[in-house]
Each structure stands twice: as C-alpha cells, then as structure tokens.
Amino acid sequence: MSYEFFIAKRYLRSKRQVKFISLITYISIIGVMIGTAALIVVFSVMNGFESELRARIIGFDSHIKLRAFHDRGVENYREVLDKLKGIPHIAAAAPYILDKAMIISRERKEGVQIKAIDPELEVKVTDLAQNLKSGTVNLGLIEREGERAFPGIIIGYSLADRLNVKLGERVQLLSAAGFDAGSIGSMGTVRTFRVAGYFQSGIYEYDDNVAFISIPEAQTLFELDNKVNGVQFKLTDMEAAPAVADLIEQRMGGYPYTTVTWLDTNRTLFAWMQFQKWIAVIVLSLIIIVAAFNIVSTLIMIVLEKGKEIGILKSLGATKESVMRIFIYQGGVAGVIGGALGALIGYALCQAQIKFQLFKLPPDVYIINALPILMKTLDFILIAGAALVLALLATIYPAYRAAKLDPVQIIRYE
Prior knowledge:
Layout: H1 3-11, H2 20-60, E1 64-68, H3 77-83, E2 90-104, E3 109-117, H4 119-125, H5 128-131, E4 132-135, E5 141-144, E6 147-156, H6 157-163, E7 170-175, E8 189-199, H7 204-207, E9 210-214, H8 215-221, E10 230-235, H9 241-252, E11 257-261, H10 262-265, H11 267-305, H12 307-315, H13 320-356, H14 363-366, H15 377-393, H16 396-403, H17 407-412
Parallel strand pairs: 3-9, 6-8
Antiparallel strand pairs: 1-10, 1-11, 2-3, 2-7, 2-10, 4-8, 5-6, 6-9, 7-8
C-alpha cells in the first residue's frame, strides 16, 4: 500500500469538532450509491419492457419479408423457397398475403387488416399458435350443426369483442377487389367465414385490427389468382437479419424483389425506446452529479482542515503529484464504495422483483402481470464505472488546490 493511499484513508475521517466533514463524505457515498442503484434498476426495467415488446412484435410478425416492388406479388413461392435453401440462419419460411378489407358481423362492421397464411407453415415462423386464446389455427371448412360449412377466420380478441362474435359464428369479409366505380351496384368481392379462434398478442394495435384467413380464400377475395404478396422468414439469430436479407436479395437477383427486416419495420419504435432510456440516464445521473459536488466540497474542506499536515508532508519531500494522488484516492474510494454498494443494492432489488414480483401490473392492460426485469452485465459495468469516473473528476480541483499549497507559508503561522 502506497503512503498516499494510507493517508487518503485517514483523511476520510475528520477528527475535529463534530465530524461535519465526515458526515458530508458519507452523504457523498450514499448519493453515489443511490444514483448507481437507481440507474441499474431503471435500465433493467427498460430492458425488460424492450425485450417483452420486441418478443411480442417480432413473434407476431417475422424476422424478414421477401416481396416484390409495387405489390406485384410472388408467383410459385415454393420455387422461391427452393431457391433460397442453404442460406445461413434461416430456420423456417412461410408465404403470406396482406391486404385490407371490411369485416361485417350481425351487429357491426369494421375495417380490418387481413393476413392470409398457410397454417402449417405459419406456426413455424410466428407465434400465432402461442397467441391463440381459444379455438384452433385450422382455417379449413368449419361446420356448425344444422348450418352450412364455411372457411375459418382467426380474429383478434379486441376485434371479436367489438364485433360481438363468438366461436363458430359467421362474419363476412368485403374487399375492394372487383369494385367498379362506374358500375351501379358494384360492391366488390364478399366472402363468408366462420370464426375459428381468437388470438391475443398483447399489442392492442394487432388485437384490434388483424384477422387471419387461408391463402386460397385470400386469393379469391382479393382476386390474386395464384399469387402471394411475399415470403416471410424466421431466423435462428434475429440480429443477423440485415446480413441474411442481403443474401436473400443476391440469391433472388435483385429487382423486382426486395426484403424488409424487423429492424426496418419497427425502427421508429425502438429508436424512441432508446431515446427514452437515455433521457432516464440523464435525469438519474443528476443524483450522482450532486454526490460528485458533495465530494468536491468535502475535499476542499479537508484541504482547509489538513493544511498543516499537507505542509509538513511537502516539507518532508512529498511532491505535488503525491499530494494530488492523496485527494484523488479519497474521491476514488468514495466512488468505488458508492458504486459497489449501489450495484449490489440494484442487483438485490432486481432479483427481488424477479422472484417475488413486488410491483404488479394490470394484466388486462399490459398482458404481463408484473414489472419486467432484464439485467445485463454491461449495464452494471458501465453505470458503476461512470459513477467512479465522476467521483474521480470531482477530485481534480481540490487535489490541484492542495498541491499548490506553499508549505513555508502554512507552517510559519502554525
């Protein structure tokens, strides 16, 4: 142990008067501790929400979509799938059709986003089966006793509530395909379906506006012949989506094909979440900054209180650099203790929430019933490191003041 560090530890306690300086030192350490713990908890909660939202959005959709420009559609999608075999990270693929229609029940009619799927392939690419609240993913003909059989449709839980329809009841889809504005009585294409199931993704925009039907029915409803809008892919590593998308485009020969990744689709949403995270960092960092100012004031008072001792040290041969190190070590000790305790407290609070779910959430609003937590080692390192850096920066001015003291002038009047 260097003598500078030994003296720094002794200076952390003031022996005179009412130990006011020591009190401020402890307050500084507590400030760093609270700021560090608060940042860790907030980061972990935000990570939890981001992970939950990402899982639900991407689980409902897909990692990559291959489609044609200007909605030309893709013919013979099975040939496309054969052409893309062997590309790394692709775990599953499924065709899809996306279009808009009007859904009509006995009581209401609503605009709806229609996604046509191949049920057997869709469940390998998205979380439709896991999101199914009741019913089945079977979109074939559904019979009801004493009534005619109709193809199945899966609708969002909120949409079903607004339409006031139950499993097995009939709804109609009306599309603009075939509509002729110049023809009197032209109404577009109408198809009748039976409700095969309800899904609940946890994202209101989907649960209130999306319905699933089979691809053959959609091709008839939207007059697409044998085309689909595109092919969607699930990857073994979702972060590899941009690289895999480039490989898919290269394999398909470019135009008229293009790809859209989950990052492209949700860029604004995730950018906003990152922005919110940094706003929280800036606000909560003020706690640590206030603690850093306390460290500055503490060290300045120690310089004033320990002037004689500093003068004696310098007269014994201590250099300016040695004196500066004494006070830098003092701030460093406060930063290390506060940061370490804050990290431990933050970890303990996060673990308590994970294990005991202390903070509940209304499941009908958030789907999840407790505040989500996702701890990342890098967050702990960066936050504790930032607290230490701020504590060290706070020592620069007091250390410089102490190093500039003239031992002759100090000792002369003692």
